Amino acid sequence: MLELRGVKAKLGGFQLGPIDLMVEDSYLVVMGPNGAGKTTLLKAIAGLLRAEGSVVLDGLDVSRLPPERRNVAYVPQTYALFDHMTVYANIEFGLRMRGVPREERRKAVVEIAERLAIKELLQRTPRQLSGGQRQSVALARALVVRPRLLLLDEPMAGLDPDIKEAALPLLRGLSQEFGIPVVHVTHDRDEAYSLGDLVAVMHGGKIVEVGDAEEVFARPRHAVTARLVGFQIIKLEGRCFGIRAEDVVVGSGGIRGRVVQTMRSAGGVKTLLDIDGQRIWAYIGSARPGDDVEIELSRPVPLDC
Amino acid sequence: MDLFKASVFSLLGVLLLFFLYPPLLLIYLGWGSLAAALSTGPFLQSLGLTVLISTAASLTAVILGIPAAYVLARYEFKLKELVDVAMDIPIVVPHTVVGLMVVLAFVAYGLGPSLNALGIKIVDALPGAVIAVSYLSATYAVRTVESAIRLLDPELENAARTLGAGPFRAFLSVVLPNIKSAVINGAVLSWARSVSEAGALLVVAYYIVVGNTSIYPASIYIYQAYIGLGLDEAVRFSAALVLFVLGVFLAYRLAVRYVGAEGS
Question: Does the first or last residue of chain B, that is N or C, have fewer Cβ atoms within 10 Å of its Cβ?
Answer without folding.
Answer: N
